[in-house]
Every structure is written in structure tokens, then in C-alpha cells.
């Protein structure tokens, strides 16, 4: 056993098991865990705090050696609670804890938003809708801020250029439902582009456009976020801000192993930069 009295399993608490983003992260966690003979127990919080809490209790009861946690609403209380119970925990993707508290792995959401902005500006888009997840999701706010800063850098007033539409969830159904509101664009300003807070939303938008006899990029340029596998399988392919999903999972698991094997280990903060992948869903604004 890695730590006396602990099992040879670690918990991976993901936010939405139906989203391929989390599948790729899980693959990375699992590959690195397997090298060390550890089993990964998958727990799905389904973006619900009560389920996250229950997962933490279960892992503590089962004496898991450690946990990789993607916290609901960035709330790190359950991760901190687990650590107090002697379950080493690494924070992944959302939320923030200082390196004095735990290791963490994240991607620069500000840079991601700015990359989308540069791409859309280059294509001549100055009326952009940001299709966000639920209000209050810090990650969405930071991606939006990146978009605004990217526009401001080239002298475009973000207040005038960007309209924000919120959805109930970061899933395709919410994206599909939001199309009407995205296209409405507010008085006298139908957008020429939509930047979605994740690919699930963007894929839903592509579907919703099709249902109205419209399509990307001729009626609306569409940009997603994540670069999940379906982004390159749909037609047109989805232009998106790619996150290193598999690497995120590997890095989180390596940090966890570092902590499990070395009692004198110092916590690290690993941060990746996302990269824009240009496909067919965006085009020059004519
Ligand atoms: O698609 C799911 C989103 O939530 C991703 O963008 C990822 O960053 C996660 O937190």
C-alpha cells in the first residue's frame, strides 16, 4: 500500500460524465494510475454539490489513497475536507487553491478567450455573442474576460461588440435551445459570430442552426472551447480553443503520485496554455 491503511485505488470526481472533455481527462488519469498499479474509481458529480459531497464521503470511507477532483462551481471545500481525512487530493481544471494547500492543474482561460477574440477579429467579426454556461461559473467569466480584453487590445469596444447569453448547463441541449436568443442579438444587432464557453454548447448551436435551415459559417461563425473529439467529426468542423485534456489528466495523476510517494513533497501548480484550432465553422464576415 502507498500509505498504510489505504486502499490501492484513487477517486476521480468529474463534473459531467456525458461530456467527452471528461472522458479524455479520465483516460490520462487512468493511464498514469495504471503504471503505478492503482485503480481509478470514477465518480460523477453531475455538476451537483450534494453529489460531490457524497463522493468525498465515499472516498474517505473506502480509504482511497487519493483523489483528483474537478470541483462543482469551483468549490474546493470537499477537496480540503478529504485532505483532512488523510486522502491526498489534487485539484483539476476548476477552482483555485494555493500551493500551500494542494497541487493543482489548470488551463489559462484568459488566454483561451483572447485567442478566440484574435481569430474572430482577423475575420472581421465585431458583433459577437458569448454563449456562456450558468451565471456564476468562474471559468466562463474568465473566458469572456479574455474575449473582451482581446477586442479591447485592437481598439474595439467590448461593451458594444459583445453580448452575453447564459444557458442552464454546459451541454448541447442548452446550446440548441439558445440559438433563437443568440440570433436575436438584441435590438438591431444580429451577431455575425458566436463564441461558446464549451464545445457541447457549440455543437448544440450547429444543430439548432440546421433546424432553422441555417448553417455555419455562412449565417453565423461558431467557435467552441475544449476541442472534444466530435468537434472534428461534424461538418463543418468546429473551430475551437483546444485544451490539453489528456495531458491534464496525466499531470494531475503524476502530481498525486508525487504526493503519495514522497511525504516531503512540495505542492505544485501546473498551468497549460490552450491553442486555437481553426476548422470550417468560422469564416470572413462579408
Ligand atoms: O466542457 C466542460 C468544460 O468544463 C470545459 O471547458 C472544462 O474546462 C470544464 O471545466
UniProtKB/TrEMBL annotation:
Domain of life of the source: Bacteria
Gene Ontology MF terms: DNA binding
UniProt KW keywords: DNA-binding, Transcription, Transcription regulation
Protein name: LacI family DNA-binding transcriptional regulator
Species, as recorded: Nocardiopsis suaedae
Amino acid at each position: 500500500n502507498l500509505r498504510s491503511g489505504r486502499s490501492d485505488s484513487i477517486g476521480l470526481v468529474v463534473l459531467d460524465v456525458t461530456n467527452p472533455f471528461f472522458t479524455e481527462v479520465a483516460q490520462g488519469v487512468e493511464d498514469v494510475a495504471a503504471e503505478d498499479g492503482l485503480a481509478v474509481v470514477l465518480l460523477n458529480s453531475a455538476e451537483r454539490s450534494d453529489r460531490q459531497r457524497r463522493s468525498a464521503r465515499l472516498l474517505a470511507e473506502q480509504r482511497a489513497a487519493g483523489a483528483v477532483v474537478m470541483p462543482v462551481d469551483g468549490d474546493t471545500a470537499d477537496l480540503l475536507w478529504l485532505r483532512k481525512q488523510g486522502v491526498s487530493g489534487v485539484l483539476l481544471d476548476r477552482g483555485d487553491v494555493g500551493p500551500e494547500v494542494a497541487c493543482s492543474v489548470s488551463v489559462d482561460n484568459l488566454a483561451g478567450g483572447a485567442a478566440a477574440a484574435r481569430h474572430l477579429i482577423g475575420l472581421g467579426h465585431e458583433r459577437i455573442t458569448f454563449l456562456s454556461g450558468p451565471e456564476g461559473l468562474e471559468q466562463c467569466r474568465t473566458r469572456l474576460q479574455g474575449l473582451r480584453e482581446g477586442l479591447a487590445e485592437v481598439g474595439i469596444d467590448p461593451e458594444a461588440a459583445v453580448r452575453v447569453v447564459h444557458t442552464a448547463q454546459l451541454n448541447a441541449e442548452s446550446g440548441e435551445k439558445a440559438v433563437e436568443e443568440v440570433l436575436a442579438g438584441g435590438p438591431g444587432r444580429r451577431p455575425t459570430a458566436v463564441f461558446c464557453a464549451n464545445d457541447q454548447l457549440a455543437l448544440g448551436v450547429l444543430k439548432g442552426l440546421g433546424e432553422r435551415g441555417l448553417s455555419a459559417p455562412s449565417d453565423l461563425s461558431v467557435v467552441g472551447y475544449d476541442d472534444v473529439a466530435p468537434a472534428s467529426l461534424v461538418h463543418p468542423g468546429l473551430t475551437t480553443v483546444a485544451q490539453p485534456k489528456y495531458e491534464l489528466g496525466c499531470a494531475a495523476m503524476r502530481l498525486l503520485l508525487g504526493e503519495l510517494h514522497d511525504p516531503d513533497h512540495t505542492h505544485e501548480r501546473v498551468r497549460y496554455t490552450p491553442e486555437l484550432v481553426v476548422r470550417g465553422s468560422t469564416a470572413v464576415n462579408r
